Amino acid sequence: MVNKNDTRVAWLFPSMELGNYWHPVFSKLTELFNHTIIYTGKWPGFTKGYEDKFTVELVGRTKRLETSQSLLGYNPGFDLVSPAIVSHLFQFKPQVVFTIAFSLWSFLAVLLKPICRWQVVIAYEGSSPTVDDCNSKFRIFWRRMITRFADAFITNTNQGKLYLTNILKADQNLVFHQPYEVPDIKALSAQKMDIDTIEIKSQKRPTFLFVGQVISRKGIKQLLSACVLLKEQNYCDYTLLIIGDGIQRNELEEFTQQHELQNCVKWLGWLDYSILSYYFQMVDVFVFPTLEDTWGMVVLEAMTFAKPILCSKCAGASEMVIHGQNGYIFDPDKTEDLAKIMKKFIDDPSICIEMGNQSKKLISQHTPETAAMFFNEVINFLQKTI
User: Fold this and answer.
1) What residue spans define the domains of the chain?
2) What CATH homologous superfamily does 188-363 map to?
3) What percent of the chain has pLDDT over 90?
4) What is the value of pTM for the model shown?
5) DSSP per-residue codes, 80-112
6) What is the pLDDT of residues 51-75, one digit of tens each?
7) N or C end of the chain: smaller count of CB under 10 Å?
8) What backbone torsions phi and psi does residue 281 show, to the nearest 5 degrees?
9) Would you say 179 and 254 are in contact if contact means Cβ atoms under 8 Å apart?
10) For the ranges 139-148, 179-188, 311-320, which has the lowest average pLDDT?
């Protein structure tokens, strides 16, 4: 078997946009495998504190082509990636190639296997209706073809594993299931900030927090509708903070004003990733009302800061929530159920502490170090099959 520090590892990421949470993981992976290169067609720069901790090579420019618009989930489409990845890989000569999902880069990786003699690992974040594309015969055919020639698969969720094995017919012995997109407190708090300047300290408690894109898929309107129900029942002694920006923000701010929720709902806009820790620390409960998410990193980030989680059943990260222990899982379309759950915390804020402690205990098993070791186990498994 090749000495692990000499193993050349390539990661093919069509886009690293909004992928700050990967940086601590890649830093740890590079400590295990010195010859690791991340190839991407969209690179926003290093997360503060992780500058040059791993090697990145920009390959062309990835463009997202959306074939239709969805009000409930992800917009269907595909990534246009540069074929120049081939020359980069020929030059690097990796022994193991991790590639994200089933893009053209994944196809090229398995196509060139017989020539380049590398092994290919497909990283499938998690399962969701739009992303799974079970109704598209062409996409299922394409994915099954790639699946047939891949050497192993990784996924964050059990649902992702079921999709790979049941729909794409992957050998279950080749599918490795463990959360590998995981949070890191250091990355979330890399930028120092004067806590006294954060206005939310004086808000009514308990304080609920949402972090994410302000788009229809994230279910923020359903969350605000639950707030309307609370108002109708004279529940106004709480605060909901919304961090993020997006095309739906104006519409939802108007909704807030129309239903006179301004005293309870505060819009903070987009904030830098490196200061989010201060807000996670100062709130009481995290809410994730998404209509569709293959994973949902913000759920794990909130758990790191010992917060109870109110998580939509439509998020892959709902597998990290034990209903009634470290939070609650709900149907985002049943706003009355979400309102009832929020009332539990308004009526008895003391439950936040115990549930938050359970969250921190659960997430403590999943760190950048454990993720890097997970990749190490997969690589060792592949090398034993050579």
Assistant:
1) 4-182+366-384, 188-363
2) Glycogen Phosphorylase B; (3.40.50.2000)
3) 85
4) 0.94
5) E--TTHHHHHHHH--SEEEEETTSHHHHHHHHT
6) 999 999 999 999 988 877 776 788 8
7) N
8) -65, -35
9) no
10) 179-188
